[in-house]
Design goal:
Elements (H helix, E strand, L loop, with lengths): L3 H4 L5 H15 L1 H17 L3 H21 L7 H18 L5 H21 L7 H29 L4 H18 L1
Helix pairs in contact: 2-3, 2-7, 3-4, 3-5, 3-6, 3-7, 4-6, 4-7, 5-6, 5-8
Length: 179
Amino acid sequence: MMLPCIAMAHEDTALAGFASGLIHPILGFDHMLAMISVGVVSALIGGRAIWMVPVTFVAVMLVGGMLGTFGIPLFLAEYSIAFSVLALGTVIASGKHISVILSMIFVSFFALFHGYTHGAEMPHLAKPELYVLGFAIAAMVIHIAGVFVGLLVQGMKRDNSLVRLSGLGIVGVGVYFLF
């Protein structure tokens, strides 16, 4: 109370919008877990999927963000996000490789809902372009972290049980989110 400039009562809304966008995927455990899982799945597929799958997710997420920002209704968004965690965990736990095209379609569906909630939950005073930039950057960083996790686990190559067990844990969290 004695140091009003530290309290930032008149904070820069542009910076606040960017910061809000940046932290939304990080503080939303469901978003973060799904995006890390997308990175892991793309690393497990390998090749061009390492960049194509996460880029597809971010691109479609931006479309969903526009829908949310403009208030266009997209029903069952939260359930779809929870289901995305469960479904991505299932892909990881199965140990099966899916095609790049199928994985891009798969993550596109879920990215639409992730983006929608980011856009729908944008703070009122935030500048939309800075908020979107913030959540897009955060999503890319989380995907890259997931890719590194996937590549690290693949580099261990002793056995696949750690990856599959992690996938089962993600499935469990997805089930928790659904119910």
